[in-house]
Amino acid sequence: MLWCMAGTTPKARALGAELRSAREAAGMGLRQLAELLETSHATVSRWESGQRAPKPEDVTAYLTTVGGTAEQREQLADLARDPDGSHWLSVGMPEQHRQLATLLEIEREASRITTVSPLLIPGLLQTADYARAIMTTGGVPASEIDTRVAVRIGRHDAIVRKTPAHLRAFIGEGVLNQLIGDSEIMVDQLRALLKYAELDNVELRVIPTRCGWHPGLEGPFSLAEFDGTRSPIVHLENRVSALFLHESDEIQAYLDALDRVCEVSMSQIESTELIGDAINGTESTQ
Question: Which neighbouring-strand residues pair with 241?
C-alpha cells in the first residue's frame, strides 16, 4: 500500500483549502469557475480537496479568475511548486499560519491522534488560562493572544465531537509540577486532565522522569491516523518553525518511537493517581 499518493499530502490539502476559500470569498460556484478556466468541475474539485495538485500556472489562472491579490497569487503559486515533496517545513509567517490551518483540518479528520509531550501539556488538552500564560510569557503580541487561545481551545473539538478521534497522550512527569501561570492555573489544568482521562476515547499516560532514554527526550511530536487508505501524518513543531512528515520510512520511525514511549510510560491508573498527587501538592503551596 502506498503511504501517500500524489496530491494527498498536507501541503496539497492546504493549497486546496486556500483556493476553495478564495473562490467562496468571490461568491463563485465551482462549475462556474471551471467553465471560465476551460476545465472540468471534477478537476477543480480535486484541486480544492487536495486529491490532485494543480500546477503553478493553474493556481495563477485560478486566483486571477476569482480576483485574488498579487501577493496571494505569488504565495500559492510558490506553494504549488512542490506540493508532493517529502517534507513541508514552515518558517515564519504566513507559512506557519497556513500550517496551523492544515493541522486543525488534520485533527478534525483524524480517527486516531497520538501526542508525545515531554515538556508541556499537549495543545489538545490545554485550558484557556494555561495556554494564555504560555503565550503571554512567551512573547506573543498582546493583540494576537485572544485569537490564538481561541484557536487552541477549538482544537478540543477533535476529541469531544459526536464522533471523536481516539487520543493517546503521553506527558512528561515534570510537566505536572511545572508552574505555568500560577498555582490556581496549574490546579485547574491538572483537574482538566483528569476529566479528559475519564473519556472513553482518551488514553492519558505519564512518562516517568526516572525511566532512562526514550524518543520523547528528542522533542515533542504528534501522529495523526485516518480511516481508509489515507496515510498517517507526523507533525513536529518548535518555537520558530513546524514540519509535516508523510513518507513511509519517516512514519515508521515514529511508530517505532511510540512503541518505546509506551514501554516506559506509566499505566493509565498510575498516571491519574500521579496527577491527583500533583494537584494536592500544588494546592498545598497556595
Answer: 91
Residues 218 and 275 in one domain: yes
Q: Does residue 44 sit in the same domain as residue 103?
A: no
Q: How many folded domains does the chain comprise?
A: 2
**Do 210 and 171 share a structural domain?**
yes
Q: Are residues 104 and 64 in the same domain?
A: no
pTM for this prediction: 0.79
Percent of the chain with pLDDT over 90: 66
Tell me the residue range of the domain where 50 lies. Answer: 10-79
Question: Are residue 163 and residue 27 in the same domain, yes or no?
Answer: no
Buried b (16+ CB within 10 A) or exposed e, 103-112: bbebbeebee
Tens of pLDDT, residue by residue over 219-247, are 999 999 999 888 899 999 877 777 888 88
Point out the domain boundary residue: 79, 96, 124. Answer: 79
Q: Tell me how far the alpha carbon of residue 199 is from its chain's centroid.
A: 21
